[in-house]
Amino acid sequence: MDIRMKREPEDFTPDVKAAIKSLNLDPKIEDLLTKLKLAHTSDVRDAEKYFHPTIRVVDDYGIPYDSMILSCSYGPEPCSDMVTLYSPDYGKCYMFNYVGIHNSKDTPVKKARQAGRHHGLQLYMQSRKEDTIPLLTRELGVRIVVHDPRSIPLASENGIDIRPGDMVSVNVEYTEIHRLGEPWGQCVKDGDVLPNNYSTVPYSQADCERYCIQKEIFRRCHCYHIRFLEASVVPKRTVICANSSEEGKK
């Protein structure tokens, strides 16, 4: 395994710096080219952290609902109450049957009483190459995540990828585990505030781990790491940690 230290623009040879400057590019284009030159891999995957899209980019260039989902039905009825989710990894996502933690509208959770495609959710989606941003997109297709209606999905860790042109049927069996607290153990109830201030309902170990890591990063650096950002229903402007010493000076 070849492990290298991350290079900085200062590590470029004078010839490389002079070559980039001689192109007389727009400062933004020059910055983009410089960051691409920092990559060690041919697909610049190790430089992806430099191209994390802002909330405005996700909102402006994320695929609209009508362009991605051509048809949606739940049983005999058309889908309603779709909720847009802003994901740092996948851009605009769309959730069906999401009621949220604080369900002020008392929206009932839809439950399939019978098995089979005619009693559940059916989606007809399209994924076109021209709708993607090449520099930020490695795959073509869609990602489906089945999650608790009260929780925000962790799309990068869960779910399945579907290729264009495929028809997929997903049969899911949901198991919910309630661990007992005192005097049988030290587990707490959903909604109880943990010592680390984590109180998301329902409890998720993966989400709790991300929360703890992000909290410690913020305590030390006063910023949030791109890798552990969470998706949000309401777009949030977050202080992102600088990816290089040059950015950190700004």
TrEMBL record:
Pfam families: ASC. InterPro entries: ENaC. One of its GO terms (molecular function) is ligand-gated sodium channel activity. The keyword Transmembrane applies. GO terms for cellular component: plasma membrane. It is a multi-pass membrane protein. Keywords: Ion channel, Ion transport, Membrane, Sodium, Sodium channel, Sodium transport, Transmembrane, Transmembrane helix, Transport. It is found in: Membrane. Its main location: membrane. Belongs to the amiloride-sensitive sodium channel (TC 1.A.6) family. This is Amiloride-sensitive sodium channel.
